[in-house]
Design goal:
The chain is an alpha+beta fold. It contains 7 helices and 8 strands; from the N terminus they run ββααβββαβαββααα.
């Protein structure tokens, strides 16, 4: 980024956080913070559906228009000091019949993150809270490559997200085929945590304290280990002649 673009951004803060702010997307972000190019680094996007086709300014403006049209909720993840945008967080596929939505996050300029990992987790916590408290949803869900994103899946447990199970060979990149772990958080579990912490995030110190008590293996890893044994035993009958 050129030095002329380092002045504090004027993006409107939508949700204020401890480590980061979630700001209202604008066309200025496409120009000032190279929003378009966040999706043009295939090596960094291996566990996503991005970086396969080149992303252009026109396609980024088209996505921005979907936000304007309220087809999804997407917010810029911004630094507290300069308000520079370095990622996006979103709720899409909002279904009021099932009271659910799909969560997604992308850190486009990781070098700008002052608290790697924790900045992303707080962004996730803030939009999760928004989905329940403001939108009135009951279930948020996401799919992640397994085992590629095991560390992030385990990290999300610290704010109440839980693995539900797997779909086989659904995370595909080139010739690589992996499982997808489906995780979710229900409103009833969210409000239990909120009652204890005051908010889903609480604080960085709160998250670190729970991190020290967290089991070594993630819930997803435990599910996978158990399912292997259960599946092998259950379908043994198919091997009999």
């Amino acid at each position: 980024m050129s030095k002329t673009n380092t002045k504090k951004r004027g993006y409107k803060i939508f949700i204020e956080g401890e480590l980061i702010n979630l700001c209202v997307p604008s066309k200025e972000a496409i120009e000032l913070d190279e929003w378009t190019n966040w999706f043009n680094e295939p090596s960094r996007l291996q566990y996503t559906t991005h970086g396969i086709f080149p992303n252009t300014k026109e396609s980024q403006e088209s996505f921005y228009q979907k936000i304007v049209n309220q087809e999804l909720i997407a917010l810029l993840i911004c630094r507290k000091d300069t308000n520079e945008a370095f990622g996006t967080v979103s709720l899409s596929n909002i279904d009021y019949r099932t009271s659910s939505a799909e969560f997604a996050i992308n850190i486009g300029r990781p070098k700008l993150s002052l608290n790697p990992g924790f900045d992303s987790l707080e962004a996730m916590a803030l939009i999760t809270e928004h989905g329940f408290d403001e939108v009135g949803l009951n279930r948020l869900y996401m799919g992640q490559d397994f085992p590629g994103l095991t560390r992030w899946n385990k990290f999300s447990e610290l704010i109440g997200w839980k693995a539900e199970g797997f779909t086989k060979e659904t995370s595909i990149r080139g010739l690589r085929k992996s499982k997808t772990v489906i995780s979710s958080i229900l409103s009833k579990d969210f409000y239990k945590i909120k009652e204890v912490r005051g908010s889903l995030w609480g604080s960085k110190k709160t998250i670190e304290a729970f991190q020290e008590k967290q089991p070594k293996l993630s819930f997803a890893e435990k599910i996978e280990l158990s399912l292997k044994d259960i599946e092998a035993e259950h379908f043994k009958f198919l091997e009999d002649v």
